[in-house]
Amino acid sequence: MNNKYLRISFLILIVFIFIVFFYQKIFKKDEKIISETTLIEKDNTYNSNIIKDVRYTSRDVKGNEYVITASEGEIDFSNSNIIFLTDVYATIILKNSNLLTISSSYGKYNSNNLDTIFSKNVIINYLDNKITGEYLDFSPRRNSMIVSKNIVYTNLKNILKADVIEIDLKTKDTKIYMYENKKKVKIQSKN
Fold first, then answer.
1. Is the pLDDT of residue 35 over 60?
2. CB-based burial label for 131 (10 Å; 0-12, 13-18, 19+)
3. Does 24 share its domain with 75?
4. Rounded to two decimals, what is the model's pTM?
5. Dist CA 22 CA 24 (whole Å)
């Protein structure tokens, strides 16, 4: 009988050692992987610089002046020439022309070439003209301004709805059109 208890105790001890060994190999390895993953995530958290109350002023070779302000700017480390803006307001003074103002919720400014993308709640004011939309690609380099998505153009006499308005900044030539040929630009008189 004593020999039987010894065998059972020995068997229980071997099972216990096996369980401990199994636990150490499987579960401790998973904990180590989780710790390493957490460290990697912490390292990737900060990859940009945030600046409050941003103001960029520049003048191109033609004498046009550009002033862009924003409540916040974020410089991406991967391309330090690109600044992502929040609550954007721009004043553009084209040589031999009147003041143009642009506001939007967000923007993407390229400090190399002054190209700026304005997005969400875009409002453009020029003399008695107002254009609203969701997206504006403003490029002094190309001398163009392309407004798209839910365009509403108003002046003293008319209200116009379209998909795209393209304006040549140099000649002031304007193209207004819809993406689909079957759809028509809608013009309504205020009178």
1. no
2. buried
3. no
4. 0.70
5. 5
